[in-house]
Amino acid sequence: MVWEPRTYRQVSNADALVPFTVVRGETDLQISALRDLSAEALAVVDALRADLERHIAAHPRFLESYVPVTVADDAPEVVRAMADAGAAAGTGPMAAVAGAIAERVARALEPLSAEVIVENGGDTFIMGTRGRRVLLVAGDSPLSGRVALAVDGATLPVAVCTSSGKVGHSVSLGSAHSATVVAPEGALADAVATALGNRVHGPDDIERALTWACAVPGVTGAVVIAGDRIGALGEIRLEPVTPQV
Q1: Which CATH class is domain 16-240?
Q2: Domain-by-domain residue ranges, the chain?
Q3: For the whole model, what pTM was predicted?
Q4: Helix axes 186-198, 97-109, angle to 10 degrees
Q5: What is the pLDDT at residue 1?
Q6: 68-124, pLDDT tens digit by residue?
Q7: Residues 111-116: contacts with CB within 8 Å, 24+ apart?
């Protein structure tokens, strides 16, 4: 695994919220809330990772599989959510891990902060009532950082998860600069974003891949950037962004 600096965080700006970072092992979260809740967030992360690590120790295929995996009804809740998301997207359960953790940390913090944003390596879960904009970062595409996905406050809570064949350490079988999925569940959005990116090998694949993603139950919209082309389908509102000088 090659570590890449998350430089996109340098341009994040959640108005009226306090940003802080929580890191434990491979989990690297940037959280924005009404106050610094680092200790509380770290406790949630530790509990989630403990559940996952125990399950993986007993069931190594859960970590290794690139196809859906069945888990027992008494498996930890986060494990079952990841397995369900993988089954819906046709991916291994670990394709859902970042989105699953982002959602669970956000929901755990919500009683302490009415507005919460948790970003986990490009997989974001947003809670509250205030509309937000999520910048679409797409590697060396000329569209990277020039388009934002507008999230209406009335649609919250919601997950906005992105996979890329060009950026980051996550495994992608495609070559999309970015494949973004919007859904109420973080695990589902993450797994479908991975599968969406897997289907894009060039601009001509955008329309077909978006049609597939938006047919997955629970997905409300999707966006793909491939080279200098962008496509969107579903309940998506895109806004231009003026690059910072």
Answers
A1: alpha beta
A2: 16-240
A3: 0.91
A4: 160
A5: 30
A6: 999 999 999 999 999 999 999 999 999 999 999 999 999 999 999 999 999 999 999
A7: 112/33, 112/35, 112/37, 112/40, 113/33, 113/34, 113/35, 113/37, 114/34, 115/16, 115/17, 115/32, 115/33, 115/34, 116/31, 116/32, 116/33
Burial 44-77 (b: 16+ CB within 10 A, else e): bbeebbeebeebbeebeebbebeebbebeeebbe
Grouping H, G, I as helix, E, B as strand and the rest as coil, residue 86 is: helix
Beta-carbon contacts of 65 under 8 Å, excluding residues fewer than 6 positions away, are: 92, 93, 94
Q: How far is CA 80 from CA 51, 83, 105, in A?
A: 11, 5, 16
Contacts (Cβ under 8 Å, ≥6 apart) of 132: 14, 117, 126, 150, 151, 153
DSSP 15: T
